[in-house]
Amino acid sequence: MEVVILGSGTFIPIPERSSPSILVRSKETCLLLDIGPGTLRQMGRLGLSFSIIDYICLSHFHPDHTADIIYLLFTLKNTDPLFKKPITLLGPPGTREFLKSLQSAYKGYINLSPKLLKIDELGKKSRRNCKNLIVASYPVRHVSESIGFRIIEKDEGKSIAYSGDTGICEDVIELSRDVDLAILECSFPEEYLKKRGIDTHLSPSDAGKIAQEAKAKSLLLTHLYPECLRIDILERCRRYYKGNIIIAKDLMRLKV
Ligand SMILES: [Zn+2]
Ligand SMILES: [Zn+2]
Question: What angle do CA 196, 6, 239 make, to 5 degrees?
Answer without folding.
Answer: 45
